[in-house]
Every structure is written in C-alpha cells, then in structure tokens.
Write the structure tokens for this entry.
Amino acid sequence: MFTKALALVLLLAVAASAEFTARFEDHYDEDLSVTEPAAAIVTQPRVQPAVGSVTSSAGVVTTPLAASQCPKGYKLAWADEFDSAATSFPKWNYELYNGAQYGIPGWGNNEQEWYTNRTDNANVALGKLVITARTTTEAERVGCCGEKPCKTRECRFTSARLRTYGKYAVAPNWQAGSRTIRIAARMKLPVGTGLWPSLWMLPEQSPANCSGCGAYGAWPSSGAITLGQAVNDIKNVTGGIAYGGAFPKSVFSNYVSKLKNKEAYHEYVLEWTRRGMKWSLDGKVVHTARSGQGGTVPNGWFSSGIGAGPDSPFDQPFHILVNLAVGGTPTGSPTRTTLAKTLKKPKSMLVDYIRVCQK
C-alpha cells in the first residue's frame, strides 16, 4: 500500500469542505464541468470475464447474473456477493507477507501487519467477506517468520490482502459495451487506532517484482485508484487517484468525506469513462476527476511515463484490491504497544458485495 500513503497523508491535510458541482455524462467523450479547489486524478482498469454469466469451476456457464444488481441501463460484468460461507476465494488471489518481496518492507509505509492466507484473517461468513486483523501468539510468530521472503522477525500482527490480479481487471472501452464502468461496494469499516481498511485498484500490467507499477512505469506514473479508505477512528473516509510521474513526481486528486455513522455499512461507487471519473458515497457525489487529454484540459490526469497517451494512465486495465492494514505512516505510526491494545480483540472489515457494471 506504499502507493497510497503519501496520497492519504496529503489528503487528510485538505479541508473536508470541498464544494463542487459536477456534470458527468456517459458519452464516449464525456463532459465534466467541475468547480472545486482541487486538482485531477487518474486510475486504471482491465478486461475479462464473460458478461452476464457465471462460470462454474468445471468451466460450465450456469446462472445468468442478476440485472437487478446494476442500475438501469447497465449490465453486470463481474461481481462477488460473498453469499456462501467459504475459506477460499476463487475470484481473488492472496497478496502475502510484508512487502519485502517487492523491496518495500512495511509496504513502504512502515506498516506492521503480516499478510497471510489463513482463515482467521480472511473468510466468508453470513454473506460477508470478513478480513480480520489480529495479534499473533509467539508460536505463530515463529511460523510466519519462517515464510519467505522474511526480512524481519516482526510479524506480531496478521491480516489479509486480497486482489483480483490475474483473474479480473477492468477499464472503459476495454471490451464491447464498456464505455462506462461502474464499481460499487458496500462495506463496514473497523474503528481503532492504527487500523487502515481500504478498497482500491492498481494497474493489471504490473511485473511480478513491482507493486504499483504498470504500462507507464513505477507508481504512480501508471495510476492508482481508491474507492474508499479510512484510518484510526474514521473521522473521514477518503478516496481518489494518483498519477503523473514516478514518485516523488506524484500528483493526487482526492476527496475527504465525513461518515455519519461509522458503525454502519456504506456504499462506495466509482463511475469511470475514458475521460472522466465520479465518486459517490451512499448515493451522494463526493468527487470528480477528468483526463488532461494531452495537456489540453486544466487539472486533468496525465502520465509522464514512456508511451503515455492523452488519456493515460487510466487508459489501461486495473485490478481490485481489498485489505486491512495495521499501523503505518497514514495512521500516525502508532507504537506496537498501542497497536496491541487496539487488537486486544481481533478487528474486522466487512464487505457485503463488490459489483462491476458496464454500459
């Protein structure tokens, strides 16, 4: 999650009272009219599954996907409703360990969690994806630090990070009938000092040894998108995009929105076309961003990476990630003693559904 830390730190320093009006048309060349004291942002998608059907493990197409899961005019392209109790995730991959495999121990943010594929860190129960952060026993610490690559003896806290990398990715115009992409998720986020739950997206065209890289180079020149995330006691939820050049030549366009009831479920929605994005929280528009179209649109997203086009970096496919981090710079880097108090009992983020619709 190093790809988002600086963005979140800057974001939390921005006044949460960004007032704007936006007109978002689902045209091929959408028209965005925005008045806000902000910049721009970019994100990236990808392609895949057969629209409107479900394929069994045997490869047999079965039940049509319910049209009611999408607003009028949209068709369901991909979804996980988490309806059946499960300890495995056929639509997802685990991303493990602490980031050392990418050369960024602590995921570049001084995070303290060790991601596992254990059922006490990720499972499906009562129709929800449950991602749980917990404190490990001494015996468990010895075991997880025996995993490779292990660059540290610290794995006091475990959690889970799931992604659709290699299984599903999406972007506007990446397949027929996908000029507008709509991604919706209903989630309940945990409260506690040092907790950092997030739903976000990274480029699909990423080499195996690099987190956040893509077609146009290192983070965030290939883009990053956040639908929703929060830290600590959840005074605000945030989201947006990162783009521009490779760090530190990063540019961000984000929203900060107060959450009326942090103990409740809330729906996060991203609508994305070739040249525009719109974020909504519980049905209310909270942010918009637009393509810089090769520098012709002020405050528009862009990439300075090699081979970038006028709508880069969000002209490439992105996969979905959901995770619960523990500690790290965006949370204020609490001590392990403080984190242990937070996780005296396990804390979980709950995801009711994630749906990708298109038109």
